[in-house]
Amino acid sequence: MNYFKKMDDKERKNLSKFLSYTLRHHPELIGLAMDENGWADVDELIFKSAQAGRIFQKSDLEEIVATNDKKRFLLIEDKSRIRASQGHSVNINLNLQAQTPPAILYHGTVEKSLESIRQEGLQKMSRQHVHLSTDKATAVNVGGRHGKPIILVIDTAGMDKAGFTFYLSDNGVWLTDNVPPAFITF
Length: 186
Fold this sequence. Notes:
Elements: H1 9-25, E1 40-41, H2 42-51, H3 58-67, E2 73-75, E3 81-84, E4 104-110, H4 111-120, E5 122-123, E6 130-132, H5 136-143, E7 149-155, H6 156-161, E8 167-168, E9 174-176, E10 178-179, E11 184-185
Antiparallel strand pairs: 1-3, 2-3, 4-7, 5-10, 6-9, 7-11, 8-9
């Protein structure tokens, strides 16, 4: 990126994808150290990214955090450490407290996944949690990344009564370990 101009939309999107991939899934690919809670040193992230050929400056990073519509990233107050809000496949502890979810939540998927979901429910797969949203529009966006979206309605009140645990991430995504088919309206 050019140090003398603001990022354009394409550069912003590419940097956001790189940060998601690095902070959520593969920090080891650039040799980045993260603590047990997923926090990484911003200066180290910038330096190690540059060594791997991805050059950006702190102001670019701050812009991504401030403008990301899904609020995927958090900076601590002094902007010296960063982490992804949720969606990790690396083992970290987000230190989230169990909370009571709204009565229903939504999950976006695609038709090719429906048979598996009907049989096994929603599974976290390689991530730490299943992700659920409070609104249909978000579920449509999530499901639409891989084809025509199908929206599943989750009976979270029933799950809560049955003893399932829910967490609310810093960016408003509801998290749980799995959703059995009995709690899903297809």
